[in-house]
Amino acid sequence: MKKVIYAFCALALLSCKEDDDSVTLISQSTEVNFQRAATIQVGGEGSAEISAYDKVSKKLFVINADVNQVSIYDLTDPSIPLEQPAISLTSGTPNSVAVGDGIIAIALENDNKQLNGTVATYDIATQNLLNTYPVGALPDMVTFTPDNSKIVVACEGEPNDDYTMDPEGTVGIINVVSGNVQLVDFSVLNSQETSLKAEGVRIFGPGASVAQDLEPEYIVVSQDGTTAFVTCQENNALMSVNLETATINFIKAYGTKDYSQPLNSLDASDRDNVTELKNWPVLSYYHPDGMDIANINGLELIVTANEGDARDYDGYSEEERLKDITLDPTAFPNAVMLQEDENIGRLKITTANGDVDNDGDYDVIYGYGGRSFSFWNTNGDLVYDSGNSIAENTLAINPARFNDEDGRSDDKGAEPEAVAILEIKSSVEKTTPVSNRFILAVAMERTDGVLLYDVTNPSNPVFLTWLQAMGDEAPESLVMIPREDSGNDKALLIVSNEDSGTVNIYQNMVTD
Fold first, then answer.
1. SS3 of residue 391 by DSSP
2. Are 447 and 388 in contact (CB under 8 A)?
3. 18-35 burial by CB neighbour count: b if 16+ within 10 A, else e?
């Protein structure tokens, strides 16, 4: 049996100390007061990457790639997680898990990850295998439509390390009742390569067609279940997929973030001996990883964690430090100053973009990641970006953890990895009518914490607090559970930490 550690944290701390077992910081709203209820030590590194929760059985399912199984915990009492018999997987490597109506779906990559993978479904009550479905190469993330009638899976199709085999990316759509599997055909975009590049979609793998180059990372589904929104991280693009016809509605570039703008300031050097946010002439691709979708005040919005990601293989790498490239002397007359280590010489940039006139020097500097979270409408238009909020709040609250002790300042910063939204319904017992509140959790892979924001007004989020438990490393996924679906009538936040192999359960102590 895995070790389960129970802990309960106090609030009202004003600064973060490295020896604190659990930390909750700064402001709390009248609807939010998350405290840690328990920590589950699932295993070692790689044992607690992705989790999914079943509101009927109150069970938590955790991908445990370390031992090739799905670990299961009964959260009827979230403060006392009870380990259940695990689901052992006989073939393939698990990447993701999702819960539907009485079943769980597991995305399994092939032992040769450039070959097609599978989605396996299991009965929640008996844990018996129900079906396996063939899907594309490297199924990386799986989810259900809101009515649980379809399973949707992002098949990333990554190249091998030599970049001699690059399978096509795809999206798989599985009809739960009929068992029919449809793969969205990305090859219809091959003829649009020139226009897609002109619009900002990054198609740049050596010798790759558009279909080969597109790498679906994460999927969310519209409230009506008709549309999937797919982020292609390396391509810096959002794809909309019609789930009824298995066709592509559109693909749209996220664009870039301008770090010369005041509210986008960043610390771009790990060698300047200071943690200071400055503006620099750098455009950075948002490169989202995790996403969530919510209807906030009648508007369906997608929220993204803008982690950043580079293609860095033995056979091809786009990654370079700014000091090691040649800057165009007209565009950058101050190139010598910029390329010093204490300025932005250490910043990792892409060589795949920026040489506008193809003369061998770089006219524009492009970096990786937005170091932020963003809201987008369902047309792919930016509604809000958090700018430098993550960096500013980290410096104000926990400077010792800033950019992983400043070591990641040159390389995507805190790396926002995952996001999740909780809707807190207003109580009819309140004497004054109160609108529903929406709380956003943002997991930061490199600084090991979770930031909470009130996003009831998504154009003006309000920072609430920082959550961090001592010993947690690299939060990879978040699950928000409304109070009506939890075992103790308290809203829950489940944080799964990839490197430390821990799952933290936080509960909202405000129930009125």
1. helix
2. no
3. eebebbbbbebbebbbbb
Identify whether the C-beta of residue 474 lies closer than 8 Å to the C-beta of residue 448: yes
Q: How many helices (H) and strands (E) does the chain have?
A: 4, 35
Q: DSSP letters along 170-227, please? A: EEEEEETTT--EEE--GGGGGGGHHHHHHTT----STT--HHHH--EEEEEE-TTSSE
CA distance 494 to 467: 12
Whole-number Å distance between alpha carbons of 232 and 289? 8
Give the angle subtended at the CA of 32 by the CAs of 29 and 37, to the nearest 5°: 145
What's residue 435's pLDDT?
Answer: 76
Cα–Cα distance, 37 to 35 (Å, whole number): 6
Which H or E element spans position 150? strand 150-155
pLDDT bucket at 13, cuts 50 / 70 / 90: very low
Q: Which long-range contacts (CB under 8 A, 24 or more apart) does 206-211 make?
A: 206/163, 206/315, 206/316, 207/166, 208/159, 208/166, 209/168, 210/186, 211/168, 211/169, 211/185, 211/186, 211/187
- Tell me the pTM: 0.94
pLDDT at 419 over 70: yes
State the number of CA atoms in the 13 A half-sphere of 45 facing the CB: 3
Summarize pLDDT for 50-99 with one digit per residue, the tens.
999 999 999 999 999 999 999 999 999 999 999 999 999 988 999 999 99
Pairing of strands 366-368, 69-74: unpaired
Q: What is the DSSP letter of 394?
A: H
Tokens 């929760």 -> residue: 53
Radius of gyration of the chain (CA): 22
Structural tokens at position 223 = 């409230």
Q: How far apart are CA 298 and CA 320, in angstroms?
A: 44
Sign of CA pseudo-dihedral 245, 165, 202, 442:
positive
Q: Check if the beta carbon of residue 464 is closer than 8 Å to that of residue 452.
A: yes
Q: 347 near 329, Cβ under 8 Å?
A: no
Task: Copy the structure tokens of residue 12.
Answer: 């009202």
In angstroms, rounded to a whole number, what is the distance separating the alpha carbons of residues 121 and 133? 8
Strands 366-368 and 283-285: parallel
Neighbours of 208 (CB within 10 A): 18
Sheet with 382-385, edge to edge strand ranges: 291-296, 299-306, 372-377, 382-385
Contact of 105 with 87, CB cutoff 8 Å: no
Q: From CA 168, how far away is CA 211, in angstroms rounded?
A: 5
Instruction: Yes or no: say if 426 and 44 are a contact pair by the CB < 8 Å rule.
Output: no
pLDDT of residue 6 exceeding 60, the answer is no
Query: Which residue do the tokens 């997680």 mark?
Result: 81
User: Which residues, 6+ apart, have CB-to-CB distance to 220 below 8 Å?
Assistant: 143, 228, 229, 291, 292, 293, 302
Given the structure tokens 């009827």, which residue do they identify?
A: 76
Between strands 237-242 and 227-232, the pairing is: antiparallel
Contact predicate 394/16, CB 8 Å: no
